[in-house]
# Entry
Amino acid sequence: QLPLAESGGGLVQPGGSLRLSCAASGFTLKTYPVAWFRQAPGTERREFVARISGENTDYSDSVKGRFTISRDNAKVMVFLQMNNLNPEDTAVYYCNVGGDWGQGTQVTVSS
# Structure
């Protein structure tokens, strides 16, 4: 099991931006497909947000055009750049690699 860790969450006003990071301690994520999911308050289901596999990316319709998934130059980490955030984006965000999950990072969008 990969020791995944997400970071970068926080409180932001509507229209603001955050950048989330996903890293695996002692491992590089260079060769792994990595996905971001989120779980909104009061829900049990984790919703797919974005995925990167090789050079290919995929997004849910709800974030397409606002969020961007990418790798750092060394391909050690994966980022989720989130722009034009709205209250519906409030959730705990998780990265997933091969079925392994991190602990998540809280994103709250509120004025």
